[in-house]
Each structure stands twice: as C-alpha cells, then as structure tokens.
Write a structure and sequence with these properties.
With about 450 residues, this protein is mainly alpha-helical. It has helices at about 5-40, 40-70, 80-95, 105-130, 140-170, 175-200, 215-220, 225-255, 260-285, 290-305, 315-350, 355-385, 395-405, 405-420, 425-444. Helix 8 (about 225-255) runs antiparallel to helix 11 (about 315-350). Belongs to the sodium:galactoside symporter (TC 2.A.2) family.
C-alpha cells in the first residue's frame, strides 16, 4: 500500500476541528451556561450529565454496529459525516438556546437537547474516528494522523473556544445572546469543515466484510483486553482536561476575581499545546506511543498538583506551570488516539472477529462518560459546597473550586499512569499481529 500523503492526512484531520468546535463549546461552557445563564441548579446539571451517559451505553455500540455493516458508494463511515454534520450542529444551537420556561420546563428542555446532542455526536464522531483505522495499518502513520487530528482538535479548537468565545460573548448585551450567536458561528464552521473532510478522506485498507451480529458486541469489547485498558486510560485522561476546563471560568471569575483571565490563560496555553503537537511524533517514534502516554500522564499529575500551592497573586507562575502541564497533556491526547486503531487489529487477531466500529464506539462512549462523570463530579461537588451563581463564594465553595482545578485532575492523571501499566501492545507484538493476519488473509 502506498504511503499516505501529508495533504491526505491534513484534509481528513480538518474534520476533527469541525467536531471539536462543537464538542469543546459543550465541554467548556455548557455547565456554566446551564447554571449561570439558563438558571438550572448545579445538582440538576450533575444528574443530567449522568443520565445522558446511561443512554450512550446503549446508543454508542449500536451505532458502531450500524457503521460496521454500512455499505454505500462512499464506504462504510464517510456517509455519516456528510449527512450528520447539519443535525449535529443544529442541536448545538438548541443546547445554547434559552426558551422562556418554568424551572421544571428548563430542566426537561436541557435533558432533551443534551441527550439528543449526544446521539448526533455519536452519529458523526464515531464513523469519523473509525476512518483512521482504514486509512493505514502503519503504526507511525497512525501516530502522524493522531498528531494532525489533535493539532486541530486541541491547539486550534482550544484557541478558538478557550481564547475567543468569552470575549466574543462579552460583545453582546447579555451572555444569553452571546452564547447563542457563538453557537451559530461555530456550528456553521463545523459543518463546512466536516464536509471538507468527507470529500477528501478515503477508506484505503481493504478488510474482510463484517460478519458479527448484535449479540457479538459485548464479547468483541470485553475479549479485547488492550481496548479495555486503553479506554480506561482515555477516560481518566479525558477527565483531567474536562474537569479543568469545566471549572476554569468559575475559577477565574470567582476565585481570582476576573472572568476575563480565562481567555488570557488559554491564550498562554496555545504555544504550549502547539509545541507539544509538533514534538509528539518525534517522541513517539523514539520511545513508542505507550511510554509517551505513560510518562506524560505522570508529568501532568505533578504539575497540576504543584499549581495548587502557588499563591493567587503569582499569575505568571500559575500560567507557566499550567503551560508545562498542557505541553505534556498534548503527548497524552495524541498518543491515545494513535494507539486506538492498533486495538482493532489486536481484537481481530485475538478473537477472529474484526470490527472498526465497535472499538471506536466503545472509545467514544468512554470519552463521553469521562465528560459526564467529570462534569457531574464537579457540578455535584460545587452544589454540596454551597455554590450559588453570581454571588460571593463561601469558604467551602472557594476551596472546592480550587481542588477541582488542581488536585482532582492530578489524581485522574496519576490513575491514568497506573492503568497504562497493564497495556501490552508494543512494536514487536503489533508487527507479529499484522504478519499473522496478513498470512491468514492470503490463505483465505
């Protein structure tokens, strides 16, 4: 098979920017929007995030099954990008719309729109990510694809969402108006980027037709121990940045007393993320994806924990330590997505059943579970602390937000390092897997 061209990887990876303009707007601001703009209690927000993930436990594997068994002139996965882009971003607008409703009506509206968003996100993001497993079987090319994707997903999307959204919202008379217009602009951009990815991506790896049935979904997941370990690590790694991002605006608005510092903070993080994205391919090539993921996780834990002990008036030091943590975090984000396609071949080799859709569906479910669990833990902890929107913080609420911004992410990252000790796919094993699978296909 011919090597992938850089332009092919670039155009495919633009889809991740499209997905993350949507995904990160939800991750960064929806909890704040619900509590401080729409007027829903933190307790209801915590419950909503958990209920939505219970539904995803059913929805995601079924979508993986459907994608695996899809046959179209565009391939198995690409049509979902074409036809799902508009519904995904229309429901984004609904999430940031504030109809005049009773308190109960607001909660019901939030449940309906947020859960529907999760369904549409799965419809698009799962097939999109699955394409990476059928673009190439070369481990280093997969690492490069992951690097490009995370550059767009984390560096560019983070810059737009983390740095640009709050100042944009401040241009309007109310946050209510500002967030809705921001959702409109980002949603339209997301559709265009996803369509570019659709038109220029290609499913290049010829694989056997999927023959498994719905009843095989659970065995496909739970017999693939490498997938389980990697998904567990990804859940914890995602919880690191979800927790930090979800409480960042609370931290700067209430603890440090200046909400505008959030945009400055993420502007400082951008060079760190960019440098991390540039360096990661060289690190993974030298040390492998697993070791890169492991030791970067430990680094994130150390620097997140150290930030907790820096005085509030030492902003330069807070930002510097955060930048180092973000630099290491890019290694983790890129490595985890570069490792996921390898578990597809591993599962095929171990069980005799090949599926791209189910491993990616399980990964998608675990990623959304991380968002929900981390978001729910943060929201419920703030509720228990006595947090009330747009009032002076109690001592308990102040302490809780500080812990959520610093200590809790450090704990998640340490646990991620421990989980990765049980991952077993290294370079030699992967080469053995590909050789044996190729031999079986030649004989059949």
């Amino acid at each position: 098979m011919l090597a992938l061209k850089q332009k092919d990887i670039f155009r495919y990876s633009l889809g991740d920017l499209g997905i993350n303009l949507n995904f990160q707007l939800i991750g960064f601001y929806l909890a704040y929007f619900y509590t401080d703009v729409f007027g829903i209690s933190a307790a209801h927000v915590a419950g909503l995030f958990l209920v939505a993930r219970i539904w995803d436990a059913i929805n995601d594997p079924i979508m993986g099954f459907i994608a695996d068994h899809t046959k179209s002139r565009w391939g198995r996965f690409r049509p979902y990008i074409l036809f799902g882009a508009i519904p995904l971003n229309l429901i984004l607008l609904a999430c940031f719309y504030t109809p005049e409703l009773s308190d109960t009506g607001k909660v019901i509206y939030a449940y309906v729109t947020y859960i529907t968003h999760g369904i549409c996100f799965t419809l698009v993001a799962l097939p999109y990510s699955s394409i990476s497993a059928v673009m190439t079987q070369d481990q280093q090319e997969r690492a490069v694809i992951s690097t490009y994707r995370m550059f767009f997903a984390v560096v560019i999307a983070l810059g737009i969402i983390g740095v640009g959204v709050k100042p944009f919202v401040n241009l309007f008379a109310t946050e209510q108006q500002g967030f809705f217009v921001a959702a409109c602009v980002l949603g339209a951009s997301s559709v265009i980027l996803l369509w570019i990815s659709f038109f220029f991506s290609k499913e290049r790896v010829e694989v056997p037709a999927e023959k498994y049935h719905l009843k095989d979904i659970i065995p496909i997941i739970f017999k693939n121990d490498a997938l389980l370990v990697l998904a567990g690590a990804m859940l914890l790694n995602t919880a690191v940045w979800v927790t930090g991002n979800a409480v960042a605006l609370y931290y700067f608005k209430y603890v440090l007393g200046n909400a505008d510092l959030q945009s400055t903070f993420f502007m400082v993080m951008l060079p760190a993320n960019m440098l991390g994205a540039l360096v990661t391919p060289f690190i993974t090539k030298r040390f492998g994806k697993l070791k890169t993921f492991m030791w970067a996780s430990l680094g994130v834990a150390i620097f997140s924990l150290s930030r907790h002990f820096i005085p509030d008036d030492q902003l330069t030091l807070i930002f510097a330590v955060s930048g180092i943590s973000s630099f290491a975090m890019m290694f983790c984000s890129i490595a985890q997505w570069g490792m996921l396609p390898d578990t597809v071949e591993y599962g095929h080799w171990k069980t005799g059943q090949r599926s791209e859709g189910i491993p990616f569906a399980f990964f998608s479910f675990m990623q959304k579970s991380a968002m929900a669990l981390a978001g729910s833990v943060a929201a419920y902890a703030m509720f228990l602390s006595g947090y009330e929107a747009n009032t002076v913080l109690t001592a308990s609420a102040d302490r809780t937000i500080r812990w959520l911004f610093n200590i809790v992410p450090a704990v998640y990252s340490t646990l991620c390092f421990i989980v990765l000790l049980f991952y077993k796919i290294d370079g030699p094993l992967y080469k053995k897997i590909i050789t044996e699978l190729s031999s079986k296909e030649d004989k059949s």
